[in-house]
Automatic annotation (TrEMBL):
Protein name stated in the entry: histidine kinase
Gene Ontology, cellular component aspect: plasma membrane
Histidine kinase domain mapped to chain residues: 41-260
Species whose genome carries this gene: Dyadobacter jejuensis
Region of the whole protein represented: 100 to 372 of 373
Enzyme class: transferase
UniProt keyword Metal-binding, yes or no: no
Amino acid sequence: FKESNPLKTINDEIFVFVTKKQKEIDELKKLELFRREFLADVSHEFKTPIFAAQGFIHTLLDGAMDDEQVRERFLRKAAKNLDSLDVLVKDLLVLSQMETGDIKMNMAPVDLLQLTFNIFGRLEHIAGSRNTSLKVKPDNLEAVWAMADQDRIEQVLLNLIENAIKYGHDNGKVIVHFSENKKSIEISVRDNGPGIPQEHLVRIFERFYRVDKSRSKDRGGTGLGLAIVKHIINAHDTKIAVMSKPDKGTTFSFKLEKASTQPLSDAHATENP
Ligand code: ADP
């Protein structure tokens, strides 16, 4: 048989070693760039509400305080900006916990139908203010059991439904649709709003990415909602998809594993009385 060439083996090993090192260096460079961009984005996002709140407070201190109406209006505006800052910090904390994998998923059977109705209740006043109807389809469901981390999947549905209302038209329609097959449940959140232009669609899950910056800020958005949604859905070992048609609306959908109709603790109680 043919003896292997020792020089060739050494060369191959050196080649593998160098490519491996180069890959690690590229990876580190990418991480460093990501970190820098992230810091720049975060500083920028912090600056806006801080500047605004500062402005209102300094104007009051410089004399505007004497007028009772101006005082009330400016204090409310300063408070609103500080509230946005608070939401931003909370969203950033959730995002950083998700990104570092510092989060324990608490998987259990969850009734998504009940969860959706609770969320409809929480969003009633913003839906009412835009005269938007909130519906579940099909409308004859009694429960929809899936395996999920209840708090996190609640955050996903809350973000998607709230966005559908916020970015939809006045007098709009938001539908949460459930369909099931043997092993999984597909959940979709649909609106009949203006839609998201194709060129933005691929980027909307990036942190701080907004299609219409002024509109999003106007509506209290931090630009982190969909980035958080994506992380949570990925932590459930699944994916989120988005489809949008101009002037027809937007649909976000994802699948979750089906669960038995009873929470596990109850099932145990029946099995082992
Ligand atoms: P925000 O805090 O700005 O709402 P998100 O990450 O939740 O941030 O959403 C990112 C952007 O995607 C929004 O600023 C908005 O431009 C767009 N968007 C999200 N959902 C919808 C929707 N249902 N219809 C139209 N645009 C949407």
